[in-house]
Amino acid sequence: MLKTFFSPHSIAIIGASTKTEKIGGIILNNLLANRFPDQIYPVNPKYQQIKDLKCYPSVKEIKKEIDLCLIATPAPTVPAILSECATLPKPLKNFIIISAGFSEAGPAGQKLEQQISELAQKYNLKIIGPNCLGIINTQNGLNASFAPNNFLSGSIGLISQSGAFAAALLDLGKRENLGFSSLATIGNKTVLDETDFLAYYASDKQTKVIGLYLENIKRGPEFLAALQKICPQKPVIIIKAGVTEKTQAAIISHTGAMAGDEEVAESLIADCGGIIAHSLGEFLGYLKIFSYFKAPANNTVALVTNAGGPGIIAADLVAKSKILNLHEFSTAEKFYLQKQLPEASSFGNPLDLRGDANHVRYEAAIKELSKNKKIGSLIVLATAQVQTNPPAIWQTIISAQKYCHFPVVPVIMSAIIAKSIAPDTQLSNFDDPLYAVRSLEKYYLWQNKKNINIALTQPVKISTRQKKNNHYLEQIKNRQRSILLFSEALYLGQSYHLNILPAPRFNSLDPQKISYPTVLKIDSDKILHKNKEGGLILNIKSPEQLLSSAKILQTKFPQTDLIVQPQIESGLELIIGLKRDNNFGPVIMLALGGIATEIFNTKIFFSPQGTPKYFKEKITNSPLGRLLAKQKIDLHLVIENLKLVSALALENPTVKELDLNPIIFYPDQPPIIVDIKVILE
């Protein structure tokens, strides 16, 4: 679908200019300077000619076919331009709107962007932007952007919501020796978004690794589905910014408070095989490791250094890793190393070659280690001491990539190296051992887990239950209420066979005829957290105590209904929750429940479309899973309740947040849900 954008045979630039400081002028100059091989049509009524090219007053004056149209004119002019292009005898279909001043600029810009969206729908237009830097394809000389022509060609396909981030990364790429196959900046994503470009890069033979900078994710479920298909074949590195600001008014359930946007995004992206970077340093490191290095042969790491300090730092990082292990040299392995290296060397891990080590000594050490089949990765550290020749050591490491069965990762801590790396060198340096270790961790995990993903089930078909519940919830919303009373939430939950403990109203009961001990609590659509507000009284042991407790709550909460529940046997308290995430839609959460909910970090997030196997894998590999096993809780019962809540989430889009807290699990009987809270959009 997007091949025409990256390989057009003809380009019209609406807003082309003779002025080199204008965006229309920069884009035209970039195409010419980069020797774009095909037709370029500048469009601007102010000029008859720009450079050696005829300039047209409007697109309709161009009689030849146009594959791609770039628009760099003020925002208010864009809808009319699109309309004109779309209604030509040979209508234009592919656009890049560079212009800013749309939804990012306020209400007036939002209206303009809405017009663009409507035109795209009406005429079936494919549009990148608005408010973007443009696109680049290093394979064919296409720089349809206002980024400088100073980037390296390589194997990274970059998708960036921010033009400034993309421009900075292209510039940093020169220093880090990172090359790009192509780049797409997607701006406001009015029509085409990150999921569309993921699909393009998946099939692009020049792209070996995909990098994304995102501030939000437009079509979360489709994005995850695309990751599932791509990640087993190509690593996808994502740096996500733009945490949604939350207020106490907006988040009123435990699940809503606990399920932060970034935690949810990281969890679901990782489920599909995507790799999250938390900083620019990590992002660059991950792009490097996947661009240039072999996959780790196993999770064991050896270190070679000429300096104690950096070597110890690197060894500590590996030792603290939950994924990698430090290789322990055997007596025999040390014996062979001692034959190759000076006696003064330290034959532990790190293998310290001492400060006077030159490239010959490094080569001898690496060649001996290359014979060791137990080593999965080698990190080679070097500091710029008097006897050190960093460029020579660099060449030694380049040669080692060919004869070592494991990746040889350079951490040469010298300013000379950046100047010594030729642009066509298929290798990149790490100047910090932290990013070398983290990058190896991610590579090892990707290599070994790339076939594990959500394994999404088919979308739920509309059922009689769904229609009935949707109608029921709409009636509540029409009464200007967003929080369900217990009886309403009970009705909804029981329609999904959730085992919720009934709670009849106090006024409907005879205190002499109920079982004790019992619990009395308020039932309000304004007060959600009863315990925190003092609206819950436990361990009531007699009718007299029940009546006195009722008076206390009625005084404290006048005109508020009271409900009564039997006080049940204690067990393992969990919370199962639902939150409708801004990026991904419904997300399910499992954690310790009751008062432990927000004290201990045991949260696990799931896609509601996951299979039972997916739920089982995530729980089993978590601390909470180990606790369930210790308490002899039947995991299948936990998964069964997760799937019931998932069905509720998928069938009821008006449910914004839901808590089953606590849901009490026992080793020898079915779980019981003590309380259910439901908040509507």
What do you see in this structure?
With 681 residues, the chain is an alpha/beta fold. The chain has four domains: 3-242, NAD(P)-binding Rossmann-like Domain (Rossmann fold, 3-Layer(aba) Sandwich); 294-449, 3-Layer(aba) Sandwich (Rossmann fold); 456-501 and 568-681, D-amino Acid Aminotransferase, Chain A, domain 1 (2-Layer Sandwich), CATH 3.30.470.20; 511-566, ATP-grasp fold, A domain (Dna Ligase, domain 1, 2-Layer Sandwich). It has 22 helices and 29 strands. α3 (78-86) runs parallel beside α4, α6 runs parallel beside α7 and α10 packs across α16 (433-449). The protein is flat, with a radius of gyration of 31 Å. Residues 244-251 have low confidence and may be disordered.
What's the topology here?
Elements: H1 3-6, E1 10-14, H2 23-33, E2 39-43, E3 49-50, E4 53-54, E5 68-71, H3 78-86, E6 94-97, H4 107-123, E7 126-128, E8 134-137, E9 142-145, E10 153-160, H5 163-176, E11 180-185, H6 194-203, E12 209-214, H7 220-230, E13 236-240, H8 254-258, H9 261-271, E14 275-277, H10 280-292, E15 300-305, H11 308-320, E16 325-326, H12 331-340, E17 346-347, E18 351-352, H13 359-369, E19 377-383, H14 390-403, E20 408-413, H15 415-420, H16 433-449, H17 464-478, H18 486-494, E21 518-523, E22 536-540, H19 543-556, E23 561-566, E24 572-581, E25 585-592, E26 604-606, H20 612-620, H21 623-630, H22 635-651, E27 655-665, E28 672-673, E29 676-680
Parallel strand pairs: 1-2, 1-5, 5-6, 6-7, 10-11, 10-12, 12-13, 13-14, 15-16, 15-18, 15-19, 19-20
Antiparallel strand pairs: 3-4, 8-9, 8-11, 17-18, 21-22, 21-23, 24-25, 24-27, 25-26, 27-28, 27-29
